[in-house]
Amino acid sequence: MRNNDAGDNEGRAKKGAITRRSVMKAAAIGAGAAIGSGAVSGFPTIWAQNIKDVTLVHIGGSYACIKEIGDQAGKDLGFKIEMQVVDPSTQLSRALTQPKSFDINNIDNSSVVYLVGKNVLKPIPVKDYKLWDKTVPIFTTGKFPDGRPIPTQGLSPIKTGFWTGPDAKKLADKPTDFLTMIPSLFNADTLGIRPDLVGGRDKVTSWGDLISPKYHGKAALVDYAPVGIIDAAMALEATGQVTYVDKGNMTKAEIDKTVKAMEDLKKSGHFRSFWSNFDQSVNLMASGEVVIQSMWSPAVTAVRSRGIDCYFAPLKEGYRGWSNGIAPMAHLSGLREDCAMEYLNWYNSGWQGGFIAKQGYYTPVPETARNFMTADEWNYWYEGKPAAVDIKDPYGNLMEKKGAVRDGGSLWEREGHVAVWNTVMDEDRYLTRRWNDFVSS
After folding, report:
1. How do residues 125-139 score in pLDDT, each as one tens digit?
2. Which of 223-237, 298-312, 332-346 has the lowest mean pLDDT?
3. Residue 363 needs a FRET pair 20 to 30 A away by CA distance; which of 131, 216, 218, 310 works?
4. DSSP of 279-341
């Protein structure tokens, strides 16, 4: 649906003509509050058949491309969403070499940098996204709700969220009328630990603990250069071994110092493993092979759902922040383009946000997600209040018992202490080469 066509469509409709967008608009109005509550209905038979035959392929990481989300979207919208889980390198390769092999790109905001100037993403007019005015300000203005500017180290959402214009040639350094993606989820990451194997939840308080001799042979790091290097830098800076001007955009000299320090640790046997996907991180922690590591919030959730104590430790130096978004691919046109926009508008309308909240993620439009959570779930996940009841994950598995408090507290207690964002550095190619040297050393 495109708002700028509304007037023309209405005029043509009055003359008896039926256009694709006017029909989709009329169907949406006729369905009322269908989004998030059941299949959209009301399409004339011929259009209902066309919609039914549409399949949009949505690719991304396992933490976001979840079958249940695609299934629910299909029920609500009347066309199919096929979720395909891929690792980051495969996803980037497909976007660059096979951009027509999928329709929706679910990417970390920093990964947009790799796609600038490649003509693979379709710009999204702000006016066509219905929930922009309800989106939290870290995406719309680059500020926290209290008015403080968000940190500038790394690639914050505001640095990669906008195109300079409808040609999608360059990223803008301030808000414009054209989005690179619809923000879909965000979080603030830290280190995962096994409290039962390190002596308690209060034993890890600094990023520096990741490289502490106390955990020799029991630590793990994510094997993804843009993220792993930040986790390493947070640890090295916390222990005073390396000082950075900007951890989110290191010089070659800073990269070399970081890699040398990590190579020395690796050769000493400090790291038990380097994981490259969600399941590996879960299994390393659940087995007890690793007691401290780079970790994602839902991986902590997955370990807990097995009845094993796992904790996302709030660290005094702050969090590594990140955000994800969904972007339509440039090849989309006609009915498939309209369906993609309907899907983007559905995505943050509530159901998806309520689902991912129970994995520990935040949605950019919290007020809609709240409608798909119980008051007790909202208070635990978003407000940081003690759980009034047992807390379960999206699949009904016990995560936390009554009385537990979320690691780090409320949304803005956690997100408000981000120190650096996931990033793609100016020296990205050099970093990748040096990171590979480190992993293979």
Report:
1. 999 999 999 999 999
2. 298-312
3. 310
4. HHHHHHHHHTS-SEEE--HHHHHHHHTTT---EEE--TT-EEEEEEEEEEBTT--HHHHHHHH
